[in-house]
Amino acid sequence: MKKAALHNLGCKVNAYETEAMQELLVRNGYEIVPFQEKADIYIINTCTVTNMADRKSRQMLHRARKQNPEALVVACGCYVQAKEGEQEECVDVVIGNNRKKDLIEILEGFESGKKRLEKEILDINHTNEYEELHLEQTAEHTRAYVKVQDGCNQFCTYCIIPYVRGRVRSRARDSVLGEIQKLADNGYKEAVLTGIHLSSYGIDTNDSLLGLILAVHEIPGIQRIRLGSLEPRIITQEFVETLAELPKICPHFHLSLQSGCDDTLKRMNRRYTSEEYYEKCMLLRKYFTRPALTTDVIVGFPGETQEEFAQSKAFIDKVNFYETHVFKYSKREGTKAAAMKDQIPEEIKACRSNELLSLSRRKQEAYEDALLGTVQEVLMEEEILVGGERYLTGHTREYVKVGQKLGENRINELVNVEIESRLQIIH
Fold this sequence. Notes:
Layout: E1 3-8, H1 12-27, E2 31-32, E3 41-46, H2 51-67, E4 72-77, H3 78-82, E5 93-95, H4 103-113, E6 118-120, E7 143-150, H5 161-165, E8 169-170, H6 173-185, E9 190-195, H7 209-217, E10 224-227, H8 237-244, E11 252-254, H9 262-268, H10 274-287, E12 292-299, H11 306-319, E13 323-328, H12 346-369, E14 375-386, E15 389-396, E16 401-405, E17 414-418
Parallel strand pairs: 1-2, 1-3, 3-4, 4-5, 5-6, 7-9, 9-10, 11-12, 12-13
Antiparallel strand pairs: 7-8, 14-15, 14-17, 15-16
């Protein structure tokens, strides 16, 4: 039996695809081993969202070759899609996006032909096909991430993703529901809908994300539905009012912001104003009690003056996010922002990043302090050691990680937990 090892880099969509490839391998007789062990085949699902992601992708490919010089090294995903013409010497097989479903066929073709390099890369920008991958088990034992959409039509000026993931392609609703039903049958209680641009689900298939959510809500066994990153424009009165009537919906909303300054948003091609964004947040707070609002912000975007940064910081303070994920702008060749004037020095990016991270920590602590003395529903996931004592931990509906001292084993159960001290809030 051949041994295969997989390693994932990047987003939740990549993680889903890596797990789906692992299931393909298992069904076809491969033994899965940890990546650090000696294997016959190493598969790295790469990422290219930042320069650092590129570097990590290269490092993992070279590490695989070093671990077993005789092994077959397979590079998949976004990095190889972007770097189609300049592959690493250590790689034997290159599989671009929308070809991961053909992994077994490609491996068998390589083995039979014994080519020096096998490349399987589609012109991702000229395909309407959604790549059908399926999962029945995931690395997490209680929560299942389910990919429902691929591609993006937004072309934000800083982002390479539309060029390596292609245009919006939605998964057929029946396929999504079938997979989630199987996961529910296998004991999963929480489904997380995810995609490259989740808000665009259905625009190419005469469907909608709201329609899909309503259908998932009817699946027996699923007790929680969580949504991946959303764009502000999907937050309408109808959308929020409908979600608020669905008891399985988790009040945790990740709304991508990127900047709180309107001039910066224009240069980013983000297609909304800070005022419009704020209205969306207030709409969510109108229909949900203390929802956890989280976001992404880029600092040091080309041309960002100190005044623009100050506006962005003040806006983030005003919105009062539970958590802000802060990224220093990373220049990506092939994007409009890479050619913009007034690129910001790294030391200024670092200072601005530190300011926002400090603000985010204060907001997070304030949100969590308000949980003290309350009872929260927690989906228990694992046992850990906290301050020398064993705790059972899981996430609230708002995705705050909470623990209680270990009693009976209640993993994969919804448990009401009284939060008596900050020791119970786990980071």
